[in-house]
Design goal:
Layout: E1 7-10, H1 17-25, H2 30-33, H3 43-55, E2 61-68, E3 71-82, E4 87-94, H4 103-118, E5 123-129, H5 133-141, E6 145-156, E7 159-169, H6 170-175
Parallel strand pairs: 4-5
Antiparallel strand pairs: 1-2, 2-3, 3-4, 5-7, 6-7
Length: 178
């Protein structure tokens, strides 16, 4: 039986930019990752976005590279913090060839722990288009609960789709031995 891959979260390095660009520029999964209009993403525009994020909004967003055996395979971030209510949103993206191997689940579990233990959040949430059943399964397996549905909220590959909102409270996470 093969051993599960060693998944760690770490800071981005220059060596990771190729893999992260592949995730960001993938038009087939664009609508699953971002509410913005799909468009070709140049390498220069992507690198500018990375530079801008590093220089300006680092306190409003925390992003880690998902590392498997020393190679970047995606990213996971915590953003849109509410400092009064102590909650934030999680976003995750994994290269297509690395999906279905438990990597996203492991990265999500580490980010949830980071959010509750290191950032003192009380609640984390995320969103997925309703047709992204694989992602929704991963989120529910991690303890997230479906909280609502934004009807026809996303325009995805030529049709409107619902967005599913899922949330996890720190108290729920602690009951599962975090």
């Amino acid at each position: 039986m093969p051993h599960p891959p060693l998944v760690t979260l770490r800071a981005r390095t220059a060596a990771d930019v190729d893999a992260l660009y592949r995730v960001a520029a993938d038009l087939d999964t664009w609508e699953e990752r971002t509410p913005s209009r799909p468009s070709p993403l140049t390498r220069a525009a992507f690198e500018k976005r990375l530079t801008d994020a590093t220089n300006g909004s680092s306190t409003r967003s925390i992003e880690f590279v998902i590392d498997v055996d020393g190679a970047a395979v995606g990213s996971v971030s915590l953003f849109d913090f509410d400092d009064l209510a102590h909650h934030g949103e999680i976003g995750i993206a994994v290269l297509a060839e690395h999906r279905g191997h438990g990597i996203g689940s492991a990265a999500l579990a580490q980010m949830v722990e980071f959010a509750f233990v290191r950032c003192n959040l009380r609640r984390v949430h995320l969103q997925a288009i309703s047709s992204n059943t694989g992602a929704i399964r991963v989120y529910e397996k991690a303890g997230f609960v479906r909280e609502g549905r934004l009807r026809e909220h996303a325009w995805v590959r030529g049709a409107y789709e619902d967005m599913v909102v899922l949330g996890l409270l720190r108290a729920e996470w602690e009951r599962t031995d975090g």
